[in-house]
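Q: How do we represent a protein-ligand complex in a form that can be generated token by token?
A: Start from the inputs.
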Amino acid sequence: MARIVVTRRLPAGVQPPVGSWVWEGEGPIPHGVLLEQVAEAEGLLCMLTDTIDEELLDAAPRLRVVSQMAVGLDNVDVEACRRRGVAVGHTPDVLTETTADTAFALLAAVVRRIPEGRDLVRSGGWGEWDPELLLGGDLWGTTLGIVGAGRIGSAVARRAAGFGMHLLYTGRRRKPHLEAELGIAYRDLPGLLSESDHVVLSLPLDDDTYHLIDAEALSRMKEGSTLVNVARGGLVDHDALVEALRRGRPARAALDVTEPEPIPPDHPLVGMPNCLIVPHIGSASVRTRRAMAELAVANLVAGLEGRPLPAAAT
Ligand code: GLV
Ligand code: GLV
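Then emit the structure tokens for the protein with glyoxylic acid bound:
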């Protein structure tokens, strides 16, 4: 039994601490295997596909640090860890810009109907030039609403400012500094949804935000509008989204995250031309995944040595 358990091979070039046991199988570690492996573990480096709950903590009585290679911690019972004196680390900051790039790429792709254009070319359906072919929306001169203007949401807002977009945000707290820096205006969620041409979700999933975007919220969105989710699938009621996209409000959606993951290929959203789904690749650049792994290892080592973690869960 190992003192350190790592639930997935780390990106090339990043070494787990000497003596770590690393799951080398295909895909995420089966939960039963994880429960066995942590019996003697003092440190655990985990992924967002692992469930770190009371059951796991009971199975790991010697655990002192949980270091997750992701920023979102909805799969980790942080409170339960805290009660047991187990430090929890994650990987904020290092993935902010890459995830904002992804959010913007998804937004631009669906607004300008890029995936539909590619499908048309591939299917041999590209005929003579047509003045009405694949008319979409615009980025410039439109209003972007950001739900959750944390690190990632703010980085999305900075990109949007460069595209000449008007900016709105909503969140638990108002951010006067951000308002001054970006000229971004605060709205409550209903106000943001009804005024925005495009909405980006970049907030954590928890009990308060589960299905935040439900049928009622979707019904407030403008005709022709766009919904982008780069946070967690559980923020959106997917059945309600199917209905809403059929009605055209919103007109389009782009999802980096779904509920569940993977989304079954026969799910109605997968086949809809106005819905772009990619497989949770928000932070998936070579450089950023490496930085995330390095930070996760640094958090793990600090926790094992009883030092403050470089990036502790707050
Ligand atoms: C990825 O979704 C993360 O939370 O880092
Ligand atoms: C995540 O890092 C966020 O604060 O948006």
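The pocket of glyoxylic acid (ligand 2) is lined by residues 71, 92, 96, 150-153, 202 (CB under 6 Å). The longest strand covers residues 143-147.
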